[in-house]
Write a structure and sequence with these properties.
The protein is an alpha/beta fold and 217 residues long. It has helices spanning 12-22, 33-39, 42-50, 66-75, 89-102, 116-125, 171-175, 186-189, 194-211; strands at 2-7, 28-31, 55-62, 80-84, 105-109, 129-133, 159-163, 181-184. It has one domain: Aldolase class I (TIM Barrel). Bound molecules: ribulose-5-phosphate. Pfam families: OMPdecase (PF00215).
Length: 217
């Protein structure tokens, strides 16, 4: 199980400081959409230079001009770039092709998707990595519910990440669905004891993995 640290609503210096404090516990670094909007692709290049062998996810949240934006992300050093599930099929197929050319991956962000038919279409398009996502603004009036996993239940071969206000308390509920990747932002990045929290989360994931070998529920 991967722990993906989402760097959102932070300055460049804060991103670098947080990474220095937490990289021992995390697997994937996500450079958040807002951070990319603030600093451009340069921040992806800088994180890549500082962490040459860690998997970097550029949270581009691409929804159009897929070829161009996917190439931007991979050229800058990202291993994975995100594309919104509601995008045109052409956008999805274009980004998948670019990912193949760069030996990268596309993570399809399922934010707002409820229709099982869209899941079928995405699967037919060749999507192999998705994120179940309860958005930051949605978190103001609700919380991540593990019902979200019903979207992916018929796709055992899909690699699944889950995001949306996950913290040490909500981790156990999500764990039983055995996702491949937990995306965690604020519960680590906005805490003064972030090193300790990241290490605790890592410990919870490692312990779960050691004691459970079943696939996704
Ligand atoms: O993509 C995002 C927001 O759109 C965040 O990266 C994701 O929601 C994780 O952050 P948090 O744990 O703070 O919700």
């Amino acid at each position: 199980m991967n722990l993906q640290l989402a760097l959102d609503r932070l300055s460049k210096q804060e991103c670098m400081d947080i990474l220095a404090d937490t990289t021992d516990s995390i697997d994937w670094i996500e450079i958040g959409t807002g951070v990319i909007k603030e600093y451009g692709m340069e921040i992806v290049r800088e994180v890549r230079a500082a962490y040459p062998s860690v998997t970097i996810v550029a949270d581009m949240k691409t929804c159009d001009t897929g070829k161009h934006e996917a190439a931007q992300a991979f050229e800058s050093g990202a291993d994975i770039t995100t594309v919104m599930a509601f995008s045109a099929d052409q956008t999805i197929t274009d980004t998948l092709k670019v990912a193949e050319d760069y030996s990268g991956r596309i993570m399809i962000d399922l934010l707002g998707i409820q229709d099982p038919e869209r899941m079928e279409e995405l699967s037919d398009l060749g999507v192999d990595l998705v994120s179940l996502h309860f958005g930051k603004d949605m978190q103001q009036t609700g919380e991540l519910d593990d019902d979200l996993f019903s979207l992916v239940k018929d796709y055992p071969n899909l690699e699944v990440a889950v995001a949306g206000g996950i913290n040490l308390e909500s981790l156990p509920l999500m764990l039983k669905h055995n996702p491949d990747t937990f995306i965690v932002g604020s519960a680590i990045t906005k805490q003064t004891n972030r090193t300790e929290i990241a290490a605790k989360m890592r410990g919870v994931l490692d312990e779960y993995e050691a004691n459970n070998s079943h696939g996704r529920l």
